[in-house]
Structure formats: structure tokens, C-alpha cells
Amino acid sequence: MEVILVRHSVTQGNKEKRFVGRLDVPLAPEGETLARETAPLLPTVEHLYISPMLRCRRTAELLWPGVEHTVVDDLRETDFGPFEGKNHEELKNDPLYQRWLAGEMAVGEPAEDCARRGSRALGRLADDAAARGYERIGVVSHGGLLMGMLTLHGRPSRERFYDWYPQNCGGYRAELCRDPLRLDILGTVGRVRA
Length: 194
Description:
With 194 residues, the protein is an alpha/beta fold. The chain contains seven helices and seven strands, in the order βααβαβαααβαβββ. The chain has a single domain (2-80, 110-190), classed as Rossmann fold, CATH 3.40.50.1240. 35% of the residues lie in helices and 21% in strands. The radius of gyration is 16 Å and the shape is globular. 42% of the residues are buried.
């Protein structure tokens, strides 16, 4: 089956380069506009699997109006712990932040745990979609979660985690294989890097 993987649209926190993570923030006005402009560029889907976060739910409504969806808790974003809501400028002199940047310690949810959670979600939604007989589904989630999922399952593989970085309202088309779990990338969708 084919899957369209899309990152949510722009939030105020994204514009300010904040660690939004588990904060349940709405789309910024320009995020609403971007999603409306992106919608005609995306393939149709039979069903959506979405993060429970408001920014993903609203993005899904704007990208694929009226399409039935399933909220999947494991598609939520990484928990950035004490860095939630802050940006680099506010944290740059924080010793804890410096240690985290240097890779000396984890805070909140480690990236590897988020990737494994994304893998679980992918397996479950693949099974659900196959049982329902869907040929093309959509997933609306978060940048960190999607990068982790693609690092584990995207083919051809890429060297680094950030090589999978999706822009807001951008992402990938992939063939979703269930055994073994794999995402064979067919191309990009929506907003892509300039």
C-alpha cells in the first residue's frame, strides 16, 4: 500500500524555532494558509492516521477535508523535557542544554525512544490499513517522529537522522511494506526544501 507521510503545518513555535514537542499549540495563521495552499498538491487518500496534537489534527483537516481519520497516540512528537517552549537563544548559556547538544546526556524523551515509538505506530497503522483494504493512506505527524521512523524504515537509507528532515506541510510518498516493516520512498510531497 502507498503512504503519504506529512509533517504538520507552521506554528508560532516553529517560526520562533522553539522546541514545541509535547506543547499542544495551534497552527499560526500562515500555517493555516500554507496547508490550504498545499492541499491541492497532495494525492487523495482513503484514510488518515494522525497525531493527537492540535497542530496535526488541524493540518489533516485542511489538507484532506472530510477524510475519515484515526488518532494514533504514538504519532505524537518527542518530549523535549525542560527545553519545551524554549529556543536556542534562550537556552544557549544553560549548562544542561550545552551537555545535551554535545550528546553527553538525554533530556525528555531520547530520539531513539521516539523512533521506536514511531516504528510501533507504523506497524500498527500498516496492519489496520491492510485489514481495511486501503490502497493509499495518509499520516500527519511531527518532524522528529517522522525522521526517527524514516531513519529506521526508510529505503534507500540515508546517512543521518536530519537527512530525512521534512518541511512543514511536506513529506514523502512511500510504498509501505509490512514484513519486514519498510518504507520504500517513491518521492516527496507537499512543501519541499527550496
